[in-house]
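Database export, one record per block. Field names are fixed; values are copied verbatim from the stored entry.
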Amino acid sequence: MKKILLVLLLVSVSFSSLQWKTELGGPVITEPAVFNSKIIVGTEDKIYGLNWQNGAVIWQKDVDSSVVKINEWNGKLFAATSGGTVYVLKDFGVEENKFSIGSPIYGMETGTNLYVSAKNGIYIYKTNNFEKLYSTEKTLGTPKEYLNKIIITEDEKITAVSQSGEKLWSYNAGPFWNPKPEIFANTVFVGGMDHNFYAVDVNDGKEKWISNLEGAVSSGALISGGKIYVATNDGYIYSLDAGNGNSVWKGGGRGGFFTKPAEGTLGNNNVVLVGSSDGKAYAFNKLNGERIWGYQTTGSLQTPLIYQNRIYLSSYDGYVYSLSTERGCMIDSPEFGDQIGYTEVEVKGRAFSVYANPSVEIRFNEGIWERVELEAGEYSYLFDPNELAFGPVSIECRVVDSAGVEGVPNKIDVVRNADLPKPEFVLEYPKSVNKGETIEIEVENDLGETVKDFSYTIEGKTYKGSGSISLDAKSAGKVEITFSKTGYADKKISITVNEDITLYIVGGIVVLIVAATGAYFLIWKKKR
């Protein structure tokens, strides 16, 4: 763990640092919401109100089943459950009312009115009660209000319904899985499980364009600045031109994206954030799709919330996380859950601080912190896993700057697996050369990767190499070279160095010329 590689690349972005995380009584299954300056989340049996600054639980409310959606509307908190109940709460979780829809609830959305989509239709909240607006036995998505219309998805259709419940038009598409349609410039935008993203006219349902994506869409899209940002189940996020559906960029993470993207700012960069099924929150540069941030939890994530210059994450691991953008570090690789074996592992990441003289510290299994001096941007730290036992390995990074030491390190867990095969040297070299020539040897492994930072020994002397070596063949004979690297079996090769026969050939030719010349003159004199 003594070799440190620095990659100095100026990156104008901060990476969120954990401020707090609060454990609740079960998986956190709703995206965070804000109500009266409190962070509101729902679990399988409760609603919680948390202090946004320190994560303390201020209040909690028991509910009948899993919370589907939480919305603030007209100064009150509405919480819908999968069991078909809508709770109306005042501050501190005080129950003002509750209503039974009589059918499992899929989604809830607010506009001029509040709407609920249930298994048997769409409901509207009026005069302190819920009334059925539209009846159907099809699987409904979350409704979206636009002027005097309510746009929904039902099985394989996009449907527009009037405020009186009359079906205005339907467009055949999909199938869909509970997305919320979004509307911009008189156009309905919604993605389907068939890998298509649809744009139809909000007035008559006529198709404007279809964009084919590589994965299914099971969430709503973000519309911002004339662009559409949509995430897919295969772990990609797309930026599409709202006018024609053409792809602007495509960014990737790991796991699957099942939630609607959110937008915010990290440092000087405008970003699009999304939560993944692999437990990681990702941020992508809004202009070009570059992945510039990630934070690992241990459970699938809902849509991140940006509030008070912080990012709030609700995770299926039972925690709510609060992260600031003031300073912090991230670990790009290895990634959470990766397996390592015998060869050196390069820990790569990024770090940033608004304070002076920032650097990064790395440690393994809560051992000694190792300093990586950081001028700006990215860092790379090479360590020998053979110093660690087989089994779980924790890798942590933290920022040290003029303001002190980052309080809570960023941590990922990997596994050191004894059963992973040791890579082998694969060398490309000449079997023989002439004295005075240069011996070129390319060094790869059996995975086709260039081997960096290896050792090679010649006549008892050891040297360092990376990728390839060049040697001068100074004397005739055998050159024995042994290649070594941590985690590799030694590889010994032999190269024959031949005497340079060029002089002998030239000398022989000269002798022949001289002999021929002498013979010629001898014969010529005899003839005379």
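Remark 1: Residues 1-15 have pLDDT under 50 and may be disordered.
Remark 2: The helical segments are 502-527.
End of record.
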